[in-house]
Design a protein that fits this description.
6 helices; single chain; eight-stranded mixed β-sheet; two-stranded antiparallel ribbon; 10 strands; about 240 residues; Rossmann fold
Length: about 240
C-alpha cells in the first residue's frame, strides 16, 4: 500500500478552490472515486482522514472545497457566514458541486463511470443537491446531513441515495425526514434511510460535545454508519 495525497487547485467561475485527492498508488488504475463534501467549517482534517480511510479500501477519494482555497471558519459565527450564501442560493451550491465532479473526472487514473459522493452535515446537503441536479454519479451518501429540498426545478435523479441520520437531530427533525422520503419517492429515486435512535447531529465527529445544542458524538452510530457506507459503496461502485 502506498497512500498518495495531492492538492488539486481548480476554479468555479472566479473562485479559486483547492481539493485534496487521496489514493493508493499501488492499486491498478482506473480506480473508483468517492467525493467527500465537508461540514460548515470548510475542508479540514476530518474529511482528509475519511479520504485516507477510503483510500486504504481501494477508492480514490477527493475532498471537495466549497468555499475557496484556504478559506476555513474558526467558530460557529464564521462557519455560518460561510455556509449561508449556499443555503440561500442552492443553484450556486449545485454548480459548485458540478464543478467538483468535473474536476474529479479530469484526474488521471479515475474510473469516470464509477463515482460516488458523500458528505457530512452541510456536506450531506451538498451531495443530496448533487443528486437532485441529475448528476451522473452512482450514489450519494449523507451523514447527519441537512435534508431541506432545494426548491429548484426537479431533474431525473440518477444516483442511488443513502441517508445516515440521527433520529433526534434538531437540524433535520422527523417532519423533514418524512419530507425527504416523500421527495425522493416522488422522484422515483432508489433511496434508503438509516435512522439511529437516541442520536443527534454530528454523531460521526469525536469533537462534537454540545449535548444541549444537539451536537454529540456517538461511537455506536459512527461505527454503524461507516459499515453502511462501505456496504453501499460496494454495491454502487463494484
Amino acid at each position: 500500500m502506498s497512500i498518495v495525497e495531492q492538492a488539486i487547485e481548480y476554479r468555479d467561475g472566479g473562485t479559486v478552490l483547492e481539493g485534496l485527492l487521496v489514493h493508493d498508488d499501488a492499486r491498478t488504475p482506473p480506480q473508483p472515486a468517492v467525493m467527500i463534501a465537508h461540514a460548515w467549517g470548510g475542508r479540514d482534517e476530518f474529511v482528509a482522514n475519511k479520504a485516507r480511510r477510503l483510500a486504504s479500501h481501494g477508492y480514490a477519494a477527493f475532498c471537495i472545497d466549497m468555499y475557496g482555497k484556504g478559506v476555513r471558519g474558526r467558530n460557529a459565527a464564521e462557519n455560518g457566514a460561510l455556509m449561508t450564501p449556499f443555503m440561500e442560493n442552492r443553484a450556486m451550491l449545485a454548480q459548485r458541486m458540478q464543478t467538483a465532479l468535473a474536476t474529479v473526472r479530469a484526474q488521471p487514473g479515475i474510473d469516470v463511470g464509477r463515482i460516488a459522493a458523500m458528505g457530512f452535515c452541510f456536506g450531506g446537503l451538498c451531495v443530496l443537491d448533487l443528486a437532485r441536479s441529475g448528476a451522473d454519479v452512482r450514489g450519494v451518501i449523507s451523514f447527519h446531513g441537512l435534508l431541506k429540498p432545494n426548491g429548484l426545478a426537479p431533474h431525473t435523479v440518477k444516483a442511488k441515495i443513502l441517508a445516515l441520520h440521527g433520529y433526534d437531530d434538531p437540524m433535520a427533525p422527523p417532519e423533514e425526514v418524512l419530507a425527504f422520503a416523500r421527495e425522493f419517492t416522488a422522484a422515483r429515486a432508489d433511496w434508503q434511510l438509516h435512522a439511529y435512535g437516541n442520536t443527534v447531529h454530528a454523531f460521526t465527529n469525536p469533537e462534537a460535545s454540545d449535548a444541549s445544542g444537539g451536537l454529540l458524538y456517538d461511537a455506536k452510530a459512527d461505527r454503524r454508519s461507516w459499515g453502511s457506507l462501505m456496504q453501499f459503496l460496494e454495491e454502487v461502485l463494484s
